[in-house]
Structure formats: C-alpha cells, structure tokens
Amino acid sequence: FRISSKQNQQNGVHSNKNSIKKPVALLWHGLMDSSYTWIYPGKKSLAYELCDKGFDVWLGNNRGTKYSVKHSFLKRSEDDMWRFSYDEFVKYDLPNSIDYILSETNSSNLSFIGHSQGTTQMFGLLSCNPEYGTKLCSFTGLGPAASVQHCRGFLKQLASIHLDQFFWWLQFRKQFMPAPESFLRQSLSLKK
C-alpha cells in the first residue's frame, strides 16, 4: 500500500515518477500482523506522521495476510498457495517489494522501518544479499525478533514449526489474519 501525502491530496497531485522527489519510507509489520498496525489509530499513527513530514510512505504485507492473498494462478483454497516459509519472505517478497518501490518512486534508496518479524526479515535479506544495504538510507528495527529461547507456551510452539504447518494447524486457507477491526475487538474484548 502507498499513502498519499496531505500536500499531494490538497493540490490534486498524485505521486508518480515525474513528481517532486520525496524521501521514501517502507514500513513492514511483525508476526501475525499486517500493515494495518502502521495506520492504527489513524492520524497519530507512524505512517501518517511520516506522510505529514513529507515522506512517500509505503506499507508492506507478508504473504497470507488479509492484504496479501492474491496469486497469479493459485487459488486461496489450494494447498500450494500456503506452501511458503520465512525463506520466501527473505528471498523473494521483501527484495521484490523494495525494487518495485524504488522503481515506482525513481529513488535510489529508501528508509526501512520494521517491527519484530519485519525487522528479522530485513536482517535475513541483508545477510543473504548484502547489496541491498546500498538500497537503504536507514534501517530501523523495532523489537527485533532474534531468538525464542525465553518464550514459553504457545509462542515457543509457534516458533518451532514451519508456516505451512501453522496454516494447516489453524486451518486458515483463505487468509492468515481476520479483518483487523474484528480481530482487535475480539483480542481486546471490545464491542462495536
């Protein structure tokens, strides 16, 4: 997702390759989350604050989240749709997202802000493809997940299995996460 800045919206200008060049920021979510985390609770969220400060803000989503379940030829109901692991996030998804954003914005680098698993994915990408370091002007890791040594219970079990097994176990074949609003209400026991 891309968030348009207030200035562009007010002037009726849509960002494209011919627009005034702005610094680019890519925000990536953590485990069992989605890009929604960066726009909640609205105007005071990090994504909107960066936008108001003049950044061209992009929000990434991992495979299987509510916002990332389309495939060019597989259907959500097919098992092959859900046969992926952390390795594909690092090898394909994150670098392809970065390259796409840099191409769309005609920029040579961007600022990356990751949370938890998003941070770990960037560490993985930089260790496997160090040349991606030249495509970053900054890398901010919020709550980097590097070890589950001290986790207990469900989180430790979750970390010890592959994502495809996790999806099968939970029988999520249509999407990894429910709609954010219903998930938040359920998680926080709030009523609409």
Descriptive report:
- This protein has helices spanning 6-11, 36-39, 46-52, 86-105, 117-128, 153-159, 163-170, 180-188; strands at residues 2-3, 24-28, 56-60, 110-115, 136-142.
- Helix 5 links the parallel strand 4 and strand 5 (136-142).
- The protein is an alpha/beta fold and 192 residues long.
- The chain has a 5-stranded mixed β-sheet with strand order 1-3-2-4-5, sandwiched between helices.
- The chain is globular, with a radius of gyration of 17 Å.
- Helix 4 (86-105) packs across helix 5 (117-128).
- The chain is built from 8 helices and 5 strands, in the order E-H-E-H-H-E-H-E-H-E-H-H-H.
- The longest helix is centred in the middle third of the chain and has 20 residues, at 86-105.
Question: Helices, strands, pairings?
Answer:
Elements: E1 2-3, H1 6-11, E2 24-28, H2 36-39, H3 46-52, E3 56-60, H4 86-105, E4 110-115, H5 117-128, E5 136-142, H6 153-159, H7 163-170, H8 180-188
Parallel strand pairs: 2-3, 2-4, 4-5
Antiparallel strand pairs: 1-3
Helix pairs in contact: 4-5
